[in-house]
Write a structure and sequence with these properties.
The protein is an alpha+beta fold and 163 residues long. It has two domains: 34 residues; 112 residues, Winged helix-like DNA-binding domain superfamily/Winged helix DNA-binding domain (Arc Repressor Mutant, subunit A, Orthogonal Bundle). The protein is 47% helix and 17% strand. The chain contains four helices and six strands, in the order H-E-E-E-H-E-H-H-E-E. The chain has a three-stranded antiparallel beta sheet, with helices on one face. A three-stranded antiparallel beta sheet has the order 4-6-5. A hairpin with a 4-residue loop joins strand 5 and strand 6. Helix 2 runs antiparallel to helix 3. The termini are far apart.
């Protein structure tokens, strides 16, 4: 009787070991999909958490992944405006004043030129950031420099809609 009990225990142990191995493989796949480039990425809540962004010197850090901006002085000036506000938002006036040194007495022609240049700068910066982070799986969920028509300002970065 003892021998069959040992055999049953061995079978149960073997089945448990296989199930544990399968669970570990599944967990590794899940954690890899959740990887946001920082140590806390393995939590389920990280699926809905916007990335951690910081500006250090001439580098933008997105979840601790550096994006060098030294060769892009206007992009750096643009991003610096967003870091002057806690929610990383900026309106057109704040941006044009900082990036293009526009003042209230700037000529109409110059103001129109600055607005056109600002649109190009935002578009080019958006594309640059998308391409700079394209190799990271979580970066596809990010939208850069999103304009909020209701509030009339830009958000530095937002998560794409979950639809």
């Amino acid at each position: 009787m003892k021998q069959s009990d040992d055999f049953a225990s061995y079978q149960e142990w073997s089945t448990l070991l296989q199930a544990t191995h399968h669970m570990r493989e599944t967990l590794d796949v899940i954690l890899e999909q959740l990887d946001l480039g920082h140590p806390s990425a393995s939590s389920w809540s990280s699926l809905y958490v916007p990335p951690k962004v910081d500006l250090r010197g001439s580098n933008l850090l997105v979840n601790n992944v550096p994006v060098p901006l030294a060769s892009r002085p206007l992009t750096l000036k643009l991003l610096q405006v967003f870091f002057q506000h806690p929610e990383h938002v900026a309106d057109k006036l704040a941006i044009t004043q900082s990036v293009y040194q526009q003042t209230p007495v700037t000529s109409i022609r110059r103001t129109q030129s600055n607005e056109c240049n600002l649109n190009k700068l935002i578009s080019r910066t958006r594309t640059f950031l998308e391409l700079a982070l394209v190799h990271l799986p979580w970066a596809a969920r990010l939208e850069w420099l999103v304009y909020d028509h209701k509030e009339r300002h830009w958000h530095l970065v937002m998560l794409k809609s979950q639809t």
